[in-house]
Design brief:
The structure is a homodimer of 309-residue chains. The first copy, chain A, is an alpha/beta fold and 309 residues long. Chain A has helices spanning 12-22, 70-73, 90-108, 111-119, 143-154, 177-185, 207-210, 230-239, 279-295, and strands at 2-5, 28-30, 40-45, 61-64, 84-85, 135-139, 158-162, 172-175, 190-193, 217-221, 242-247, 267-269. In chain A, 31% of the residues lie in helices and 17% in strands.
Chain lengths: 309, 309
């Protein structure tokens, strides 16, 4: 029996090395060289299936190397009746928390205004605000949102979070439901989106969501492009409802050369680099989920297809 | 008896309110309206003495509202035979830690390259490095250096620190002495300066200090302008020894309009805004040090004139 690697060929060597370091006895094969189909008991996928993976009769489970799996749930090349696991490895969590902390601090410390002032040789003495006076609302309190929120709270910011179910996380005021969303957003100076993309969250970054924020709030969006209503964002920036947006994910990637975000003075574009899964830390989940799949146990970060994540 | 406020008049109301909130019974007077000189038992100063403070015969101690006091030690308008206290209030520490964390993360996550790429509409996918592979060397492990270093270590970076005497701080490898300085610097990708300015540390940011760093290291300097040899910095940037410098403090402030730092593509200038003392958090030290001065006790953060800080 063997594991089939059907993720990005550019990353195959790194994943193979990381998996073999943990479990030298596992046999790895690489799409499209699967060998006899009946020998494949586990598959690793990422951005999309590279071809039809429905013919592996003995496939016990599919492991995504991505944290967001909305695209895989809709991928017709994948069998829908096998357990699918997301990957939220520690390297990815660390990267995402860094990204969120960096951009919360850059907003709080007025990095963009200071960079413009430097270009104009202007000595602009902006006294730092006390972080306790800055409310940060985080949409999504899964592994990523909880870790980023805890770190931001540790720096003294006032942190609120919203998720499908209320969470108990030290330093984070937790909300859920539609009414909870408005309470979470009310008066917040920074809005961070780390939600999974589901039918409930598609387009959630829209005018109605921006309306309860403090005037001139900052949006930091590192979840999925389809969460964002781009027209509503541009209108909110124009109206001053938002003063700035830091965006890592887009409806179409790479972002088209003529997209208005590139040259918008209030938009910071980062090219989907907020967080990546690292084979060195992610391989442990693969090895453990392979074991669980063969044993018929629930997987680490197994996707609930009804919820969509 | 009364406390004489001889700091920046623009901040007088905020300090008075913060002090009175803690100690309504203390009498405050404001330079130059000191009333009878013999009634002044404590003085508050900041950037420099606004006039001759040597005539207050009953002055028991002087409280600086600044963390760095090298300028006050050389101020001929201050009596040299009275205890002087620096102020390292919690608000200042929080601000400095924010500044250091922000710029360490911006360097690690290649913020400057990404901003240039955005201007060119370039989708530049720079995979985040693992923070454990990035060594950050902090010069100065007093209240500020220890707090910033602890926070950076908590984010997963490898943190070393150098100070006059070796410190025991969880998550920070500590060095002291001349040989310790070279060990602390060796191969570091980020160099943070938070030292006090003394005769020993004046000009310490020079070619010899930059030489042991990793090629292309980043300097983050938020201590005092006189720590930095500007010519050596410009040469190190030119040679690629350093790839970038983030500088908050300058030999002359505000920075002259024709200074080369303003338009240097590898230099980030911030206008001495890394950290400020906040009356709300600093007043407690003033009230307590006034009490200690009258009781003849050692002050909080009392300056050792021999060490210079």
């Amino acid at each position: 029996m063997a594991i089939l690697y059907a993720d990005d060929p550019a990353d195959a060597a790194a994943w193979a090395a990381a998996i073999r370091a943990l479990a030298p006895g596992l046999e790895l094969r690489f799409w499209p060289d699967s060998g006899p189909a009946a020998e494949i008991d586990f598959a690793i996928v990422g951005g999309k299936a590279p071809g039809d993976l429905r013919g592996f009769a003995n496939l016990k489970a599919i492991q995504s190397t991505w944290a967001g799996v909305n695209h895989l749930l809709a991928d017709a090349n994948l069998p829908f009746d096998r357990p699918l696991a997301r990957m939220v490895d520690q390297g990815l969590t660390v990267s995402m928390t860094e990204y969120v902390v960096l951009h919360v601090l850059d907003s709080a410390r007025e990095g963009p205004r200071l960079r413009v002032a430097q270009c104009a040789r202007q000595w602009l003495e902006l006294a730092p605000q006390s972080p306790g006076g800055i409310a940060v609302a985080i949409l999504g309190l899964g592994t990523l949102g909880a870790d980023a929120g805890t770190r931001i709270s540790g720096l003294g910011f006032t942190v609120r979070g919203w998720s499908r179910s209320r969470k108990e996380i030290a330093g984070i005021e937790s909300f859920s439901g539609e009414r909870g969303l408005r309470d979470c957003l009310a008066g917040a100076q920074v809005l961070v989106c780390l939600l999974p993309l589901t039918e409930d969250t598609r387009g959630i970054l829209n005018a109605a969501t921006f309306a309860p924020l403090a005037h001139g709030a900052v949006l930091i969006h590192a979840a999925r492009g389809a969460h964002l209503n781009e027209a509503d964002l541009l209108a909110a920036l124009e109206a001053g409802r938002l003063s700035r947006a830091v965006i890592d994910v887009f409806a179409t990637e790479p972002l088209a050369a003529d997209h208005p975000f590139w040259k918008h003075p209030q938009v910071t574009v980062t090219p989907h680099v907020a967080a990546i899964t690292r084979p060195g830390t992610g391989a442990a989940d693969i090895v453990e989920n392979h074991r669980r799949a063969l044993a018929g146990e629930a997987l680490i970060n197994q996707v609930d297809r009804a919820k969509g994540y």
